[in-house]
Design brief:
By secondary structure, the chain is α+β, with helices and mostly antiparallel strands. The chain has two domains: 64 residues, Orthogonal Bundle (Arc Repressor Mutant, subunit A); 56 residues, no CATH class. The protein has four helices and eight strands, in the order H-H-H-E-E-E-E-E-H-E-E-E. The strands form three sheets. It has a three-stranded antiparallel β-sheet with strand order 1-2-3. Strands 6-7-8 form a three-stranded antiparallel β-sheet, with helices on one face. The protein has a two-stranded antiparallel ribbon with strand order 4-5. Helix 1 packs across helix 3 and helix 2 packs across helix 3. The longest helix is centred in the N-terminal third of the chain and has 17 residues.
């Protein structure tokens, strides 16, 4: 990850704080208001965060957040539930990452992609409480950023 300037750090921190508080990604306009920048300048910062692999991925051809790793901007098959909060990960690995970032206990229900059987991972007191099953990574970690939406 590249070194971030103060504006990039402030915007990235705001994005994560917003997600944890609001259960959704902030819009370009919400980020612009917080950063006291016009939307064009905010879009440039978001694009810089994306190209430097600073955990922000934009929807193709836009300045809208698609992924603030590990949080997905849209519902996925990997929900994460903690108390009254619900977020979404792009995969089961992200779902567990959400509970780490949120520093909360919770659960991540999903379905086995092979059998269709219900699966649920639970984190209690910061520890994985249920761990049946196997997590398979189709792409080596070193290659994830080549197509982060696929991996």
């Amino acid at each position: 990850m590249a070194s971030l300037d103060s504006t990039e750090k402030r915007i990235r921190l705001y994005i994560y704080e917003f997600i944890l508080r609001s259960d959704r990604c902030p819009t370009l306009n919400e980020i612009s208001l917080e950063a006291d920048l016009n939307p064009l300048a905010t879009g440039r910062v978001l694009h810089e965060l994306e190209v430097t692999h600073s955990a922000i991925v934009l929807s193709p051809g836009s300045s809208n957040i698609w992924l603030a790793d590990p949080f997905a901007a849209l519902p996925t098959p990997y929900p994460v539930i903690s108390g009254s909060h619900q977020w979404f990960g792009m995969c089961v690995w992200d779902a567990l990452g959400i509970l780490v970032v949120a520093d909360r206990d919770g659960r991540a229900p999903s379905l086995c992609p092979v059998s269709g059987d219900a699966l649920e991972l639970r984190v209690e007191s910061g520890t994985l409480a249920s761990s049946e099953g196997v997590v398979h990574f189709a792409v080596p970690a070193a290659n994830w950023w080549e197509n982060i939406g696929f991996t």
